[in-house]
Amino acid sequence: MAGFARASVKGRLFMLFKIRDKRHERAIEVGVGGRLQNVVVDNEQTSKLLIDKNTFGFTTFIPNEKVVSKPIAREIRE
């Protein structure tokens, strides 16, 4: 696509994090479910462009600018 920056697409959700302890892998898969296949992009404009061009077929886009996070307690992280 002309004028499109490939770096705007961050990747599928499952590719963007690493599970440190494999014992938790199944729980994460069950909790997150099919959303692991969602595509993370930099912003809503990129989402709209990709939807208009039907680049990924039927998928859900997650604009990174819309993600709200909360700090994870230290005892959970470690």
> How is the quaternary structure best described?
single chain
Instruction: Indicate the low-confidence ranges by residue numbers.
Output: none
Class inferred from helices and paired strands: alpha+beta
Helix content: 25-40%
Q: Identify the overall geometry.
A: elongated
What order do the strands of the largest sheet run in, or round the barrel if closed? 1-2-3
Q: What is the terminal separation in angstroms?
A: 43 Å
Please report which band the strand proportion falls in: under 5%, 5-15%, 15-25%, 25-35%, 35-45% or over 45%.
5-15%
- Gyration radius, to the nearest Å? 15 Å
- What is the makeup of the main sheet? 3 strands, mixed
Q: Mean pLDDT, rounded to whole units?
A: 88
Number of helical regions = 3
Order of helices and strands: EHEHEH
Number of strands: 3
Question: What would you note in describing this structure?
Answer:
The protein has 78 residues and is of the alpha+beta class. It has helices spanning 25-32, 44-53, 74-77; strands at 9-12, 39-41, 61-63. A three-stranded mixed sheet has the order 1-2-3, with helices on one face. Helix 2 (44-53) links the parallel strand 2 and strand 3 (61-63).
Question: What are the main properties of this structure?
Answer:
about 80 residues, alpha+beta, 3 helices
Give the structure's gist in a few sentences.
This protein is α+β, with helices and mostly antiparallel strands and 78 residues long. It has helices at residues 25-32, 44-53, 74-77; strands at 9-12, 39-41, 61-63. Strands 1-2-3 form a three-stranded mixed beta sheet, with helices on one face.
